[in-house]
């Protein structure tokens, strides 16, 4: 039996997570998926009850589960709280407690939604790229850091970009393994012409590449990668990069698809335990209205099936069910073109479950 911790969080989190859990339950009841689901509080919802966005009970639940499904955290209600108890603090706490060093962000443009991108359809149509971002090292964590006052009285802000060989190696291995199950191409993004730490990054990636002769490797400077992502994004299969470069490039890649409500993510540790969440936030502007798009969270369940529960066939079935539903023209407001009537969060969940139940053609 695999344990899945479900942390709905705030805003639209509980609404979209409810649909994703119904999908998991459907797989449990009708496809014999051996899974036990347990709920925990996180974010503002946890603060309201326990005075902390990541209570000990939630941390225990998350660290003992094979996978964690998270909705989203945060909202105006908690914005004036001290930073240490803000809902968003729970995200960093969860990531570091779970040791999830590899953040996987696919940017997939479903052909049915080609009109949603700001780029021309021929540039993005069929886009299917995976960004693997290093998540627990680099400049976001490096010491020393801070703001100091120099002898001349001027203040100076400073951060440190550090990577050890083992930190680079483990995320590179993950990227090559993922590429093996895809189109077998890895592009490592760095700034090796300027930054010594990413010179080492490139060196280690090249060493790892020798262990994967069946995967083509290339290297690109981050400024060029940012440009290539909007010029010809379909040239990429898997991109692996540092924490900060990945943060920026994955948001850029997400917007190629034009629909924040469609994009899932996974963050994995060494033993395939993972944190799965849609890339969007708690969307307070539409919370409680039953109009949010649950597909990013449902697709996060598909990633969970593939990477933590080792059920690739069921993962593919969920992804195919989403595609079938899009084929029917059903759209939530965020992905609707004017010709489509918008459906509710629940109706979208119902349709995915109906497609899952339909016999395979
Ligand atoms: P957001 O992603 O919540 O919303 C941005 C826009 O996209 C909004 O107009 C929203 O209505 C829309 N949107 C988002 N998800 C949608 C969905 N599934 N269906 C339809 N429309 C959707 O970003 P924001 O407004 O900058 O942040 C709102 C709150 O969420 C803040 O408190 C922020 O800190 C938090 N946040 C949390 C996470 C997380 O939990 N991982 C990530 C980002 C932001």
Heterogens: nicotinamide-adenine-dinucleotide
In terms of quaternary structure, the protein is: single chain
Shape: globular
Radius of gyration: 21 Å
Strand content: 15-25%
Quote the average pLDDT: 95
In the CATH hierarchy, the architecture of one domain is: 3-Layer(aba) Sandwich
- Helix/strand/pairing category: alpha/beta
Low-confidence parts lasting 5 or more residues at pLDDT below 50? none
CATH-defined fold name of one domain: Isopropylmalate Dehydrogenase
Largest sheet: 10 strands, mixed
Question: What is the string of helix and strand elements?
Answer: EHEHHEHEHEEEHEHEHEHEEHHH
Total strand count, please? Answer: 12
Helical amount among residues, as a percent range?
Answer: 40-55%
CATH superfamily of one domain: Isopropylmalate Dehydrogenase
CATH class of one domain: Alpha Beta
What's the tally of helices? 12
What is the end-to-end distance? 30 Å
């Amino acid at each position: 039996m695999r344990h899945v911790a479900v942390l709905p969080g705030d805003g639209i989190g509980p609404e979209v997570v409810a649909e994703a859990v119904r999908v998991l339950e459907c797989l449990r009841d009708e496809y014999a998926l051996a899974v036990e689901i347990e709920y925990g509080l996180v974010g503002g919802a946890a603060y309201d009850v326990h005075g902390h966005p990541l209570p000990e009970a939630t941390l225990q639940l998350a660290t003992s589960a094979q996978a964690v499904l998270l909705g989203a955290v945060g909202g105006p209600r908690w914005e004036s709280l001290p930073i240490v108890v803000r809902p968003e603090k729970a995200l960093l706490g969860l990531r570091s407690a779970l040791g999830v060093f590899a953040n996987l962000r696919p940017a997939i443009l479903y052909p049915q939604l080609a009109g949603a991108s700001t780029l021309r359809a021929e540039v993005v149509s069929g886009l299917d790229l995976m960004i693997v971002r290093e998540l627990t090292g680099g400049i976001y964590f490096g010491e020393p850091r801070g703001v100091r006052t120099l002898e001349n009285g001027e203040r100076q802000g400073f951060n440190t970009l550090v990577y050890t060989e083992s930190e680079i190696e483990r995320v590179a291995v993950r990227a090559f393994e993922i590429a093996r199950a895809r189109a077998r191409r890895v592009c490592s993004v760095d700034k090796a012409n300027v930054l010594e730490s990413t010179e080492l990054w490139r060196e280690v990636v090249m060493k790892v590449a020798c262990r994967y002769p069946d995967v083509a490797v290339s290297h690109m400077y981050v400024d060029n990668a940012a440009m290539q992502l909007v010029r010809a994004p379909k040239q990429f299969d898997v991109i692996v990069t540092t924490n900060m470069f990945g943060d920026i490039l994955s948001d850029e890649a997400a917007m190629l698809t034009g629909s924040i409500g469609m994009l899932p993510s996974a963050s994995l540790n060494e033993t395939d335990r993972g944190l799965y969440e849609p890339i969007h936030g708690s969307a307070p502007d539409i919370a409680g209205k039953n109009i949010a798009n649950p597909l990013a969270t449902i697709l996060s369940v598909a990633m969970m099936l593939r990477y933590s529960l080792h059920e690739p066939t069921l993962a593919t079935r969920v992804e195919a069910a989403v595609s079938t539903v899009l084929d029917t023209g059903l759209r939530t407001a965020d992905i609707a073109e004017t010709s489509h009537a918008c459906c509710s969060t629940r109706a979208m969940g119902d349709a995915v479950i109906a497609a899952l139940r339909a016999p395979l053609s």
